Amino acid sequence: MTKHEARDAARAAAREKAVKLVEQMTIEEKASQLRYDAPGIPRLGIPAYNWWNEGLHGVARAGVATVFPQAIGMAASFDEELLEKMGDCVAVEGRAKYNEYAKHDDRDIYKGMTFWSPNVNIFRDPRWGRGHETYGEDPFLTTKLGLAFVKGLQGEDGDLKAAACAKHFAVHSGPEAIRHEFDAVASPKDMEETYLPAFEALVKEGDVESVMGAYNRTNGEPCCGSKTLLKDILRDKWGFKGHVVSDCWAIADFHTHHMVTSTPQESAALALNNGCDLNCGNTYLHLLSALNEGLITEEAITDAAIDLYTTRYLLGIMDGCEYDNVAYEEVESKEHIELAIKAAEESIVLLQNKNNILPLNLDEIKTIGVIGPNANSRASLVGNYHGTSSEYITVLEGIQKYVGDKARVYYSEGCDLFRDKVENLGFVGDRMAEARTVAEHSDVVVLVVGLDETLEGEEGDTGNSYASGDKNDLLLPKTQRDLMEAVASTGKPVVLCLMAGSSIDLSFAAENFDGVVQLWYPGARGGSAVARMLFGEVSPSGKLPVTFYDSVDSLPEFTDYKMASRTYKYLTEGVQYPFGYGITYSDVAVTEACVVNKKATDKACERDHIAGLATDGIVYEVSVEATVTNLGKVDTDEVVQVYAKNTTSDNAPANPVLCGIKRIHVKAGETVKAEIVVKDPAFTVVTKDGERVHDGTTFTLYVGTTQPDAKSAELTGHKSVEIAVEL
What we know:
With 727 residues, the protein is of the alpha/beta class. It has three domains: 3-327, TIM Barrel, CATH 3.20.20; 334-543, Rossmann fold (3-Layer(aba) Sandwich); 588-726, Immunoglobulin-like (Sandwich), CATH 2.60.40. A six-stranded mixed sheet has the order 9-14-13-12-10-11, with helices on both faces. A four-stranded antiparallel sheet has the order 18-17-22-23, with no helix packed on it. α1 (3-22) packs across α12 (298-314) and α4 (80-103) packs parallel to α5 (139-154). The longest helix is centred in the N-terminal third of the chain and has 24 residues, at 80-103. The two termini are 32 Å apart.
């Protein structure tokens, strides 16, 4: 029995139980169960259940849990196995907490087993504040990592270890300030080529249990009530069998902001009739009056309740399951903490290492200056949608613990994160003199700047109300730019560490500092991983899952959802740091590559479980063997990347497209072989009408440790190996 067959069999059994239970409910009781905060029904022995739970990078908002790097940092690992392990950790810790909370009859928000993760929207514009919740700008990488996370979270047996949710369906990536009224207009080609592939794969291949609609409209229809998205595509075309949930209070937007309906009753009806089973919000309180007005049927309410109880039975939270014995001791276990630190290590991207300033040598360094508003900040460790850690290790603390008494560590906050002074009664720049002093007294400076969830994040959650969580540009706050200039003026060697979840202008850092490192939001104990990287215990090996642009001036308007001139696939201008780029402490290169196997298989009969299938039902598959040599003196991980370019079709993207990844470990001086399977949709193209087809049989595959662009070759000194492939 395949995993899909096992899940289908379990679903059929769970649905049968759900039907029998829902049949016993009154219409009022059925309607009440379509709210995220579903009340208990004592006469049927049904406890209350809150569907709203978060697990983006660890169980969130429910007390103590292991806090992993933010999603964008996990994406920088390019490591599917790591994402699967993190998903499993979320499920296990979530189940351990649920079991204990249930014993105490605690049915509060954030304490259930339906996690509203992962976010598989495409990070198409660097200004979007929520981009760090995603796996970056590339549909292939997003798909691979999203599938791995769902596999780990849900398990592969018939029953669910936890329920995952693919969000936000669909075409959602800012602006945050107008998301409740905005209409994201996307062409059929961009929909099929960019915005929908990850959702399709999570539904067809990942059996994801839930899908959450977006706040915005897409091509005129509000996403949480869109016939096109929820019925035509999700249910009918892709065969989705789970439940659909609205984003929180998104259905109320129908009549208050989108103005596509006039009353709450009409909004509730539009959502329910088009397949939104569960309302995060309160608009479904009007379901019964909508029923009385003839806007919906009792059957529609019943069907939605059955969908929801099917999930609850699949989770085993209605009648018991094997996961009832998961013990509380699993929460923040030693293994989970070690995994989170390993994830932080794999997420770090080394962007520049002039004069081999890194790793730092404690035999030569006696004083280290740690400077910057994020150097000792807990907020910059965790991003948003985070849990509570029993221990936080900031970058400063990580360095102090690692160094011990081998060197003196000086510290200065340097400046506030964005205000022009730290103390309210102080002068402007009240920590600048201290920062200069620390730098002047240090052999080397670790300068830690960036953002946190108060500056980039979700509308309503951040402190930058002027941008509602988005960024207006790619510049760091002025006070941090002033700090960088002040530290640079001392002439001391500097390693700049950036803690942020998006593209930032690093031109000053690249010109003035020897070391430039992207840390993202590395998790609660991320400072430990950063210290191990800085002092050479581990070689950085992360890759950029987003493009670092020179500025937003070359980008289309933020509200323009056309993919032209966006992301590495469609860019025509140069960038600061390319997607897929990241160096190590060694020098690893792909020296040879060849095709070892090719095949074409008719998969039309398996269409239900294959995403990105061409209309002819054929799947092309090519196995590539890469010879990878570590030319340097340091053992390191490296990520082999394969990109494909259709050399004949006018429908192909302008630039080669990522189609294969493999993280490997290569010892100094060692040569290893890595086999990567490249398969459709890599050899398909999308027409302007949104049809995925095979068009042309001649391709070039590029195999390397970066994408095959001129900037990556300039930065690494290596070009990708080209392979001509005829299908």
